[in-house]
Amino acid sequence: MESRLTILGCGSAAPSLLRANTAQILEMAGKVILIDCGEGTQWQMLKRKISAFKIDIIFISHLHGDHYLGLPGLLNTLSLYGREKPLKIFGPKGIKSLLFHNFKEAEIYPNYEVLVTEINNKKSKKIFEDNEITITAIPLQHRVPCYGYHFDNNHYSLKINKEKCDLALLGFDVIKEFKSGNDFVKEGVNYSYKDYTAPYHIEHSYTFITDTLFLPELAPIFFKTNLLYHESTYLNILLDKAITTYHSTALQAAEMANLCQAKLLVLGHFSSRYPQTNELLTEAKIIFENTELAEDGKVFIIK
Ligand SMILES: [Zn+2]
Questions:
Q1: What is the mean pLDDT of residues 33-48?
Q2: Phi and psi at residue 109, in whole multiples of 5°?
């Protein structure tokens, strides 16, 4: 099964009419993952018809306002509308006290469990793993502790042999059981899923790198990633500014894509000094041809 990345916001610093602050929805291996939650993320989700109720896990890169200020509001709304499913949140040290302080002072008592894990690793580290997906936190270099995330979808799934099912007159309800690896009994006859399916391997990955100096030494961690989202706050002519503010340029993002041999590079986190982002794209394409621009509402398929 393919994964799907929806850009909810790709602007930097303060929200603008051009672009919302950073937030993305990654749908991978049946999970709905929110990555960063800048102010206004709830509005962006409403606009894109994505239900906040479906979110399973949230990853926050760092505690600058343009990446997390939407989170208290989102948690509040989920409580207001009676979410019951526990919610996992990963983020840098300090996120727990920020959220729980807000709950306490605002007298919010969520009826769902908020499971916050603070990450504090100095080297890249696996922070989540189940049968289908592995997630690595990658320390970046910004003015405050900041993490990139690498999502690796790597598992076996079952492909239905449609012809065989049709021949045996097996309908949709049976196919559903087979897909989950269950046998099916119909009129006393046992149909084994093994006879009607074939295993196939799924592997693809997504890498999210934002708010950081250019760190070429990270490339091996997400070598051959299918989609690399890399911040490109500035054009390379403003390299000095990028360095003093701990950001990267479009050219550097392309260098990273080249080093890690990404299939596709998506540029984002644009400074509001660029109402048009075409120049950033042109700059990146000099080094890495398969580059696209993030845009609020844009969807990328990862497979
Ligand atoms: Zn930022």
A1: 97
A2: -120, 85
Centre of ligand 1 to C-alpha 182, Å, is 46
User: From ligand 1's centre to the CA of 68, what distance in Å?
Assistant: 10
**Ligand 1 centroid – CA 223 distance (Å):** 24
Of the pLDDT bands very low, low, confident and very high (cuts 50, 70, 90), residue 158 is confident
Please give the pLDDT value at position 173. Answer: 82
Among 3.60.15.10, 3.90.1150.10, 3.30.70.330, 2.60.120.260, what is the CATH number of 3-302?
Answer: 3.60.15.10
Active site residue 66: yes
Query: How far, in Å, is the centroid of ligand 1 from the Cα of 270?
Result: 9
Share of the chain above pLDDT 70, in %: 100
pLDDT digits over 186-237, tens only?
A: 888 888 999 999 988 889 999 999 999 999 999 999 999 999 999 999 999 9
Q: Are 45 and 170 in contact (CB under 8 A)?
A: no
Q: Which of 36, 56, 66, 130 is catalytic?
A: 66
pLDDT higher than threshold 90 for residue 164: no
Indicate the burial class of 91 (C-beta count within 10 angstroms; 0-12, 13-18, 19 or more).
Answer: buried
- Every domain of the chain and the residues it spans: 3-302
Are 113 and 86 in contact by the 8 Å Cβ rule? The answer is yes
Encoded amino acid at 182, one letter: N
CA 213–ligand 1 middle distance (angstroms): 12
DSSP string, 15-58: --SS-PBSEEEEEETTEEEEEEE-TTHHHHHHHTT--GGG--EE
Has residue 59 got a pLDDT over 90? yes
- Separation of 269 CA from ligand 1 center, angstroms? 7
